[in-house]
Amino acid sequence: MSAVFEQIFQVGFLAAIIRIATPLAFATLGEMFSERAGVLNLGIEGIMLLSAMAGFTATSMSGSLWLGVLVAVATGALMGAVHALFTVALGLSQHVCGIGVTLFCSGLAYFLYRPIFGQQSVPPSIKGFQPEPIPLLSHIPILGPAVFNQFTLVYLAIIAVPLAALVLYRTPWGLSVRMVGENPRAADSAGVSVIGTRFQAVILGGALMGLAGAFLTMAQFNAFTFGVVSGRGWVAIALVVFGRWDPWRSAGAALLFAFVDALQLRMQASGLGHIPYEAFLMLPFIFTIVAMAFMSRNAVAPSALLKPFRREER
Amino acid sequence: MFRLEARTSTPAWFNLALPLLAIAATLVLCSGLIAIAGAGVIEAYGVMLSASLGDSYAITETLVRAAPMIFTGLAVAIAFRAKFWNIGAEGQLLAGAVASCFVGAIPMPGYLAMLLMALAGAAAGAAVALVPATLRVKFKVDDVVSSLLLNSVIYYALMALIEGPWKDSFSGYPISPPVEDSANFPVLIEGTRLHLGVVAALIAAPLCWFLIARMTLGFRIRVTGENPEAARYSGINVQRVLISTALLSGALAGLAGVGEVGGVHFQVMSDISPGYGYSGIVVAMLARLNPLGVVPAALFLAAVMTGAEAMSRATGVPAFLSDVIQGTALLAMLVALLFTAYRIRRVAK
Question: What would the pLDDT profile of B142-166 be if each residue is shown by its tens digit?
């Protein structure tokens, strides 16, 4: 009996890790594409929030989950374009623009929520994505129920990682992205449009951040609340550094963070003495800072990161 | 086609005109949102204006709100001058609030309590800021990311405190015990909330200006920020300057928290800061990183915040408009700053 119990416990734990890692994986891949092209996007926290809100709104109005995902992705891409307009086209400070985008997007998300949904005693919720077991694979012991009995968006995240690696390392566009992030002047001489490529990468990044936001309101919480993103965007920025700007390593970093997060959730649930649960919520953030301290020494950022490109300047 | 062309000199009147232009553009852009929320734009802005500047009480309320943003604005302005990207003023503020609340709860004579609260709060803020600075200097960890993540750590630590050891066992509310009455900052005008901390903030700005513009450390901070290579060649210990900047910046942000505990709330709760740390970034940019400009910039944002709440009550437009205004103002100011360095020139294709 206890053996069965223990197994369920483990399966649940594994499944929780995968579920926590999914939005982080999308967000981290999104930030990675942006940074690989040389653009830090600190707007990520706000972009995720606004996309989460937009997707939730679209779904609760239309009843279609996939329309909601589409709206969230489009919102993310649009906000990516806004960030690119300021940082790539105008060459303004990436740090400060990103904070501006975050302030603007999160303010806008909360602002629009009330005219749209009005003031209700019970916050509106939707019937979100349901787990879709994959035939055969979901019967593999432990791994099956944990990995192959998940939301469709989770499978999408699992596919997104090799796809991102393929795009970044094996396509001409990926090569352009890496070039404009490492040596924009050389890329420019080689006939690659630095501005255009950066715009595309930041917009793609925004779309992935939008997907991350969609997962939060449409699969994880099925409602839009204040704390729906709560620092996950900032964590994704750290995970990019931790994952050394590589899709595989970034996904690994997301899984590692999700493991720590799931562990602290377990510790909360086990009710360790009288420790308030907020003490556990700090752990993943502290873990990330410590992990970065170990990893950053030999982490090599794209060399043109944070540097605006203006053709006529030397 | 248009092209950005570097300016050889910047006209002096730009310094005043650009922030005003950015603010005007922001208010025009945000009026669309007021319309979406179903209110009259002129009416809504009218309510905001009268609630924040309309009478003497409104003005004192705006000043009270401006105080923490003057401190966080100075913290960010000084840090950014050295290109120490301190996005962690929010966490440093919270740490300052917690530390000063600890000290303020100990019975002692009022002036001693206030002095020790300020020292403890400044020290706590500085200690928090020291983490990203040390990580950058010793481990090459990006200061933006580490200072951002620390905000979450400090916030949850505060929450754990007020949900745990500090929790009010009588009412069960997640709030800290209040500071001693004697440790409450004196109110300057009877019937208002204008407290001593506001004066401290108004004095801090010219002091910071003097430090940046006239003192050796300020010179080192500026050179380090503008050209670290040149700083190194001229014998400046860049790492030490970064650490000093972080300590100073964190202490200022910590003082923002002290003022909120000593002068406004007299205890610590989860929403003691509605994002004053992030507003500090907006303030610093609107001020063009000039400590003297921080005061009018903070007053503007404080007026927006106080006004937005009144507007929300009167017209039903969500008070989150003030967050949107902050974000838009920040971006508008950045674009405006672009025109101090560049002009737009039409070029024939």
Answer: 899 899 999 999 999 999 999 888 8
A235 touches chain B (CB under 8 A): yes
Which two tokens mark A27? 């967000």
CA distance A268 to chain B (A): 12
Interface test with A, best of B144, B147, B271, B339 (most A CBs within 10 A): B144
**Chains A, B: CB pairs < 8 Å:** 166
- A1 — pLDDT class (breaks 50, 70, 90): very low
Question: Is residue B285 less than 8 Å (CB to CB) from chain A?
Answer: yes
3-class SS of residue A265: helix
A282 to B153: CB separation less than 8 angstroms, yes or no: yes
Residue B72's H or E segment, with its range, is helix B56-81
Paired tokens of B217: 């450390």
Check: CB of residue A234 under 8 Å from CB of residue A49.
Answer: no
Instruction: State pLDDT tens for residues A143-177.
Output: 777 788 889 999 999 999 999 999 999 999 999 99
Residue B2: in which H helix or E strand, if any? strand B2-6
Q: Which two tokens stand for residue A242?
A: 């931790």
A137 in reach of chain B (CB within 8 A) = no
Whole-angstrom distance between the N-terminal and C-terminal Cα of chain A?
72
R_g of chain A, CA atoms, integer Å: 20
A6-11 — which CB contacts under 8 Å span 24+ positions?
A: A7/A142, A10/A142, A11/A142, A11/A145, A11/A146
CA distances from B178 to A101, B148, B155, B328 (A): 37, 29, 19, 37
Smallest Cβ–Cβ distance between A296 and the set B139, B144, B322 belongs to: B139
Q: Which of residues 117-136 of B touch A (CB under 8 A)?
A: 131, 135
ipTM summary value: 0.91
CA distances A150 to A139, A286, B42, B95, Å, are 13, 29, 51, 40
Question: Across the interface, do B156 and A237 touch by the CB < 8 Å criterion?
Answer: no
Averaged pLDDT, B53-63: 94
- Residues of B (56-75) whose Cβ lies below 8 Å from A: none
Please list every residue in chain B whose beta carbon sits closer than 8 Å to the beta carbon of residue A118. Answer: none
Yes or no: say if B290 and B337 are a contact pair by the CB < 8 Å rule: no
Q: Say which range, B72-86, B102-116, B168-182, has the weakest mean pLDDT.
A: B168-182
